[in-house]
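Re: the request from the purification team.
They wanted to know what the chain is likely to look like in 3D before they choose a buffer screen. I agreed to run a prediction and write the result into the notebook, where they can find it.
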Amino acid sequence: MAAVYKAYMALLTRISNPVKSHSFFLFGARGVGKTSLLRTKLPKENSSYIDLLNANDFDRFAIHPQQLSDFIAALPTKGTQWVVIDEVQKAPALLDMVHLEIEAHSQAKMGIHTERPKERNLLFALTGSSARKLKRGQANLLAGRAFLNYLFPLTHLEVPKEYNLNSMLTWGSLPAIVTADSDATRAEFLSSYVHTYLREEILEEQIARSAPTFRRFLEVAAQMNGEPVNNAAIGRDVGLSTPTIQTYFEILEDTLIAFRLDPFHQSVRKRQREAPKYYFFDLGVTRALAGGLRAELTPHNYGFGKAFEHFIICEIVRLSNYASNGWRFSYLRTKDNLEIDLIIDRPGKPLALVEIKSADFIKDEHLKSLRQLGADIPESECFCLCQEPRAKLVDGIHVLPWRDGLVELGITLKTGD
């Protein structure tokens, strides 16, 4: 599997394309392919790597951050030189030294006397799978001296054709999952991933101090994926206080394992529910956490429909981020359970009201919420993304095959360097 994975990653063209004329952060959950992307995008001969998951590198640079200057001093003195620091959140103090080196090299290029060679163009690529230590520790985030980028599991535009929709709904789209040679291997990987995440991202960083309670919380949170959160109810189920449950959801966001979808902010005719939703970053990881890997997803059943909704929302969020289009996302559910799955605030365009249905034939009842709630939201467009084979317009609602729908929403991906 390792050989297949490396060969595939070498050929894979990822949509994420950080600007290579400027230092940058690249955040993403473990296993999304951050290091593989950088080894593909950055010039091999001019790139030096520091891996803070490696014990030797961690001991050298986390305990003695000033050794970064010695490391850089040994690099070639001419041309662009990249320093890649993997999992920088493991040593937040190292960012002060990164800042110092960026400033010193910038001054040298301007002719200001420093010990750095003015012929060297020093750039940093800083990866991380958790923003929590950086945020809570008030780490130096370089004040704009490094651009911010994110990497996600593979989108439908990045997976090979043979890895179809059902595979993405069942197993997710982490690179190691897509390249696995069997479903048994995929199940084993996801099980291992879940336990590794608990050990490395949560317990070793002492973010959550109780493994059993946090593991139970993760299971319940995964089972509630995409549902409005009731912190008090989850707390009663897990045996924790409401404030602790709120903190645990913050941990999921900070470690990039889930993202938050808030209720739509504008008033509408019917009173809204106010609780946020959380969606996990990958469908396979969600099923593993919820204990559902053994359950087969059958088209047209409830589980398939929920997975399809999760998939489409993840695709929109990922592609929007890669396009840097500034979209903002929310959802709307009334107290009498009328719901719009996703509302997209698109700067310069009408609000997009998006209903997501896994059906291959859309009936009138599928469009009930869009009809009733769409009329209360001015300057909006209504879309239903589904599995119908052809686009159609029903009472002003754009009913679209989901691939076409992603395009019609207006995502324009960056193609430049």
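For the purification team: The two ends are 32 Å apart (CA to CA).
Please add any questions underneath this entry.
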